[in-house]
Amino acid sequence: MRKIEHLGIAVKDLKKSNELFSRLFGKEAYKEERVEDEGVLTSFFQVGDVKIELLEATAPDSPIAKFIDKRAEGVHHVAFAVDDIYAEMDRLKKAGFEILNDVPKKGADHKLVVFLHPRSTNGVLVELCQDDVK
Ligand SMILES: CC[C@H](C(=O)O)C(=O)SCCNC(=O)CCNC(=O)[C@H](O)C(C)(C)COP(=O)(O)OP(=O)(O)OC[C@H]1O[C@@H](n2cnc3c(N)ncnc32)[C@H](O)[C@@H]1OP(=O)(O)O
Ligand SMILES: [Co+2]
User: Fold this and answer.
1) Could you give the number of structural domains in the chain?
2) For ligand 1, what atom is nearest to the CA of residue 35?
3) Which pTM was predicted?
4) Backbone phi, then psi, for 133, in 5-degree steps?
5) CA distance linking residue 43 with residue 122, whole number of Å
6) Of 73, 85, 86, 122, which has the fewest beta carbons less than 10 angstroms from its beta carbon?
7) DSSP class of residue 86?
8) CA geometry: angle at 127 spanning 121 and 129, to 5°?
């Protein structure tokens, strides 16, 4: 794992939260992107070397909807940049972590992603991101 790639924050109203975080960072989000398969609409802020990803649910069965229903808005996951997502999946599986998807899936912002179940990572939802060079 190279570095923290982004911090994912679950929000109820992306427009409202974009305004709040634009005020906080003094800069606008650099993109907004819908990831249908994940049931999310995301926006991204670049803060130094790290990105902040805001996520609004676009479907009632979205993980974000479930998270907010259960816990309220707030930090949802931490994503780490990896150079070789398959090698990392193999290493982590052997190290006893629970990987939620057998094959990497298309994430936002031109990434291939996998998630680790929070029950295997001390209660923190971890995402691995590799640049999707295709
Ligand atoms: C990919 C697009 C974008 C990107 O960066 O490119 C994204 O980041 S999309 C982000 C949204 N997608 C995901 O989060 C996919 C991975 N998440 C999941 O598969 C589920 O959310 C899962 C398996 C973590 C939980 O789903 P489940 O249906 O089991 O929900 P429960 O509420 O029953 O949760 C079970 C258990 O896990 C705890 N939990 C749930 N979410 C989180 C979380 N974000 N952080 C920490 N813990 C979490 C929940 O509290 C339950 O624990 P328990 O002790 O049983 O209450
Ligand atoms: Co993410």
Assistant:
1) 1
2) 2
3) 0.96
4) -75, -10
5) 27
6) 122
7) H
8) 145
Ligand 1 contacts CB of residue 8 (under 6 A): yes
The pLDDT tens digits for 38-97 are 999 999 999 999 999 999 999 999 999 999 999 999 999 999 999 999 999 999 999 999
Q: Is the pLDDT of residue 134 over 80?
A: no
Q: Which domain holds residue 90?
A: 3-131
Check if 37 has its Cβ closer than 6 Å to any atom of ligand 1: no
CATH number of the domain within which 54 lies = 3.10.180.10
ipTM value of the model?
Answer: 0.97
Q: How confident is the model at residue 22 (pLDDT cuts 50, 70, 90)?
A: very high
What SS3 class is residue 10? Answer: strand
Ligand 1 center–CA 125 separation, angstroms: 6
Residue nearest to atom 14 of ligand 1 (CA): 63
